[in-house]
Amino acid sequence: MLASGGGTNLQALLDACAERPGRPAPPARIVAVVSDRPTAGALDRARQAGVPGHTLAHPDNAAALLEVLQQERVDLVVLAGYLKKVPAAAVAHFRHRMINIHPALLPAFGGAGMYGRRVHATVLASGAPTSGATVHYVDDEYDRGPIIAQRTVPVLPGDTPEMLAARVLTVEHELLPAVVLELARRGLPDHPVRLT
Ligand code: GRF
């Protein structure tokens, strides 16, 4: 898991992959959390969950990132609120095994600089009647890889960017675990999968 922020998407995944009495063991587990920020809340959540955390001193260094991912025997790389561009060599190594969640309905409202509050402010300014979350494969451009799944939310009269962000985040916390678990159940196909 690559994250730069508070890690609520990481937490949703940790909860979805936790072993619970009376339910079958989930087909996936979080083996490591990697951040470009030593103070990222995601690293605190990893520590609390007993998951190894790593900070990348040079996030643009593909070899350093690949070394961590291979050391931790990562099969699927999940970006959630990771604000750095993943080096192309790392994307190539994890082709169709690296996914990202974006808080809007791609291909609209994506691309460089479209993250955080700005995404929702742009959606509101556009007059779009709906927004939502998108899980997609990572390729060499921000937010452009094949879409795996999306979930929509209504834009409501009087919405502020913060209100819309909160509504989208709720469906992110449902969509990302659902996609990760389904990809795991399918054995992490090495070709693009479209779920919804
Ligand atoms: C989420 O809105 C995600 O879609 C975007 O960054 C935010 C991450 O939030 N890429 P968190 O750190 O998982 O709470």
Rg on CA atoms, Å? 16 Å
N-to-C terminal Cα separation, in Å? 22 Å
Low-confidence stretches: none
Shape: globular
Ions, cofactors and other bound molecules: 5-O-phosphono-beta-D-ribofuranosylamine
The structural class is alpha/beta
Number of helices: 6
User: N-to-C SSE series?
Assistant: HEHEHEHEHEEH
The counted number of beta strands is 6
Mean pLDDT: 96
Order of strands side by side in the largest beta sheet? Answer: 3-4-5-6
Q: Describe the main β-sheet briefly.
A: 4 strands, mixed
Range of helix content = 25-40%
Q: DSSP strand (E) fraction?
A: 15-25%
Word description of this protein:
- The protein has 196 residues and is an alpha/beta fold.
- Helices cover 35% and strands 16% of the residues.
- It has helices at 8-17, 41-48, 62-71, 88-93, 117-126, 161-185, and strands spanning 33-35, 53-55, 77-80, 98-102, 130-137, 147-154.
- The strands form two sheets. Strands 3-4-5-6 form a four-stranded mixed beta sheet, with helices on one face. It has a two-stranded parallel sheet with strand order 1-2.
- α4 (88-93) links the parallel β3 (77-80) and β4 (98-102).
- α1 (8-17) runs parallel beside α6 and α5 packs across α6.
- The longest helix is centred in the last third of the chain and has 25 residues, at 161-185.
- The two termini are 22 Å apart.
- It binds 5-O-phosphono-beta-D-ribofuranosylamine (GRF).
- 5-O-phosphono-beta-D-ribofuranosylamine binds at residues 3, 5-10, 80-81, 101-103, 115, 169, 172.
